[in-house]
Design a protein that fits this description.
The protein is α/β, with parallel strands linked by helices and 369 residues long. The protein has helices at 14-29, 68-71, 125-134, 149-162, 178-186, 202-215, 232-236, 244-255, 308-328, 336-342, 352-363, and strands spanning 5-10, 51-58, 93-95, 139-142, 165-168, 190-192, 220-229, 267-274, 281-292, 296-307, 333-334.
Length: 369
């Protein structure tokens, strides 16, 4: 069994930057005893630094044609640089298919805040398939923007036809769609999705609080989660018609833990605004209202501030290695355990403590997926 995970990336934005930096950050750390900030230090023999970058696609002129090691630090990326010494990788960022990958309003902002589409020729589907095969990629992770439904499915189709594992970090419903899931299972290709759930972000915190209400016998009556930040993800989401699947994904991630229905009018979860000077920082306000003993009103409010993209990478690095482990074992289709643990809209929802146990059992070979 090869101890390398050959990874392709679509969308060389902040999340990709954090992921690539993290691979080399942990490589410098060395042995597992020095690994901190990781949920799964080892996955079937694969360590965080066993991931090898082999291909990348983007559409921005400041990234297309550049080596991936340079592109991850170019504008409009604005995440924290925690590992500057990423070596030259010999992976040229190719121009991907634009499709619906850019919201119409994005062109009205300064270049350092948004996309500048490269004039180079786009890779067509056959081009992407050929690159995936030539580079012998094991896994592709999808980081196209929220609302890029066509683009997400374009790369899912490429993985399906190239025999490459797929991690869908975005809220286009692919892995959780029975039709797509069946296609990947039929072709013995493992997939994880949909919509990455950060290592300790607003969704996982909101879920933990809802679970606490349930466990302590406090009926939840109303709740909201309002998020804002300064990266291009929040700028993109100012176009509200791109948020349909995102809102469903984030809302169901929370309400799936409730053994009762509180009504759609009593829960609101979603992005509220873009604040440019926050850069990659994300701020979330969470409020839960319920009733404790004797029907007496009870409320809880929390403010969370995180660096958004490293938080996402902490989950992505585990999902990627689980897909490779599944490939080694000849397992295809949705990986239920790691999807439930690292994604907001997995094929099946489980409380997080159960999902964690399921992942451990998967890694140990005690459950198939």
């Amino acid at each position: 069994m090869s101890k390398r995970v050959r990874l392709a990336i679509v969308g060389v934005g902040n999340c990709a930057s954090s992921l690539v930096q993290g691979i080399f950050y942990y490589k410098e750390k060395g042995d597992l005893q020095n690994i901190e900030g990781i949920m799964l230090p080892e996955v079937g023999g694969y360590k965080p630094y066993d991931i090898e970058l082999v291909a990348a696609w983007d559409i921005d002129v400041r990234k297309v044609g550049k080596d991936l090691s340079e592109a991850i630090f170019n504008p409009p990326n604005c995440t924290t640089i925690f590992y500057k010494e990423v070596p030259y990788l010999g992976v040229k960022v190719r121009k991907g298919k634009v499709l619906d990958g850019v919201a119409s309003h994005m062109t009205r902002f300064p270049e350092d805040k948004t996309f500048v589409i490269s004039p180079e020729k786009e890779d067509e589907l056959e081009d992407v398939i050929a690159v995936l095969k030539e580079t012998q990629a094991d896994v592709l992770i999808n980081y196209v923007p929220v609302g890029a439904e066509e683009a997400a499915r374009f790369y899912a189709e490429a993985c399906l036809r190239a025999g490459v594992g797929f991690v869908n970090a975005m809220p286009t419903f692919i892995v959780s769609d029975p039709e797509w899931a069946q296609k990947f299972e039929k072709n013995h290709i493992p997939v994880v999705g949909d919509d990455i759930k950060s290592q300790l972000g607003a969704t996982i915190l909101h879920r933990a609080l809802v679970q606490l209400f349930v466990d302590r016998g406090i009926p939840l009556k109303r709740s909201y989660q309002l998020n804002f930040g300064g990266n291009t993800d929040f700028l993109n989401m100012l176009e509200r018609n791109r948020l349909k699947t995102k809102k469903i994904s984030k809302t169901e991630a929370v309400t799936s833990l409730l053994p009762y229905d509180i009504g759609g009018e009593n829960i609101h979860i979603g992005p509220s605004d873009w604040v440019p000077w926050l850069k990659d920082r994300k701020v979330a306000y969470i409020r839960l209202e319920g009733e404790h003993f004797g029907g007496v009103p009870f409320s809880l409010e929390v403010r969370l501030e995180v660096e958004d993209s490293p938080n996402s990478a902490g989950s992505a690095i585990d999902a990627i290695r689980c897909v490779k482990l599944a490939k080694d074992r000849g397992i295809g289709g949705p990986l239920i355990s790691i999807s439930a643990y690292t994604m907001k809209h997995p094929p099946q929802q489980f409380p997080d403590y159960i999902a964690k146990k399921m992942v451990q059992e998967f890694i140990e070979g005690k459950r198939e997926r």
